[in-house]
Amino acid sequence: MSLDWVYYAISWILLTWHSAWDAIVSGGAFIGTNWSWILAIVFLVVTIRVILFPVFVKQIKSQRAMQALQPKVKELQEKHKGDRETLQKEMMELYRKEKANPLMGCLPMLLQIPVFLGLFHTLKRLKPTNDLKTLYGWNVDQFDSASHAKLFTAPISGRFGSTADELASLGANGTTVKVVAGVLVLIMIATTYLTSRQMILKTGWAEDPQQRMVQRLMLYGIPVSLLVSGSIFPIGVIIYWVTNNLFTLGQQQWVLRKFPPLVPVKTGAPARTTAQPAKSGGLLGRKAAPPAAKAPATAPKVAGPKPGAKPVNPKKGPAKRQG
Predict the structure, then answer these.
(1) Collapsing DSSP states into helix, strand and coil, what is residue 29?
(2) Is there a contact between 170 and 149 (Cβ–Cβ < 8 Å)?
């Protein structure tokens, strides 16, 4: 299947944003950076995320529905233990009846894969020696400008693992490219880890072993894999990834505050209640809580007679003095 339509779409968005920012920042380099191209990549992310926002909302709703169904799923697992085929049929029927889609949680990520591949392919071909400069709607001036665009003097098409010949064609310093790419890769790994950690801290670890394994893979596996794959990503692609992660962190924080996750109720555990002090009537109009009942007073303990003392008869009053 050809991805040319993806390359044309990504190129059009990228070039449109570059034209807009080039008119604002006048295309000049500042601190060794061509900001019009850097901002074009950043706003490519913003454009894609705005388009995918309705899908992200559906993802959150699906995750809430799946979380609410966990007790019923657990019952089915206990009921059909050892009968995997029946269990799968019953679970699919439950998901259909409750309108929950387990695959919806991965949909936003799946839809962003073509975008990532399109940007990767577009930036990878940004080499001054490339003869095919007018592919995917580019003109020669735009291609030459992008192929010489830099971030802190490191070309955005350069990679941590760029060969000496590639660096020579870009007119780049190998040490500078490795430092800039290396720092960006570390930021990419950290922000990827934080996006997964943020969601797990809010929703909690799944009780199902398979789902917990997926959570661990998202939390640790993907960041570790980026340590290796990050060396082949062009700097522009890493900028896209970091920006996307930062956008995800902010978006998740907003959604988790607006739609807080369900708190699972653990069966078999004693209910733990914490008394909260009631607020007196005022702006909220709450009534004062009734005062707590005092415990009945206990009779004071009478100390026993000291060793060697004469017994005292309480029925007899004090002896009268003889006149």
Answers:
(1) strand
(2) no
Q: Is this prediction's pTM over 0.85?
A: no
Q: Are 297 and 289 in contact (CB under 8 A)?
A: no
Contacts (Cβ under 8 Å, ≥6 apart) of 236: 37, 41, 119, 123, 126, 156, 157
- Which residue's entry shows tokens 């990549």? 41
**Is residue 81 classed as helix, strand or coil in its secondary structure?**
coil
Q: Is 260 within 8 Å of 207 (Cβ atoms)? A: no
Q: 238: closest CA among 294, 163, 302, 160?
A: 160
Q: What is the end-to-end Cα distance of the chain in Å, rounded?
A: 129
Per-residue pLDDT of 22-61, as tens digits, reads: 998 876 678 899 999 999 999 999 999 899 888 877 777 7
Q: Which residue has the tokens 């990532």?
A: 116
Closest CA to 51 of 122, 123, 111: 111
Helix, strand, coil tally for the chain in percent (to 5): 60, 0, 35
What is the CA 28 to chain-centroid distance, rounded?
A: 35
Residue 151 pairs in a beta bridge with 154
- Scored b (16 or more CB within 10 A) or e, 49-73 reads beebeeebeebbebbbbbbebeeeb
What six digits make up the tokens of 299?
Answer: 């009779």
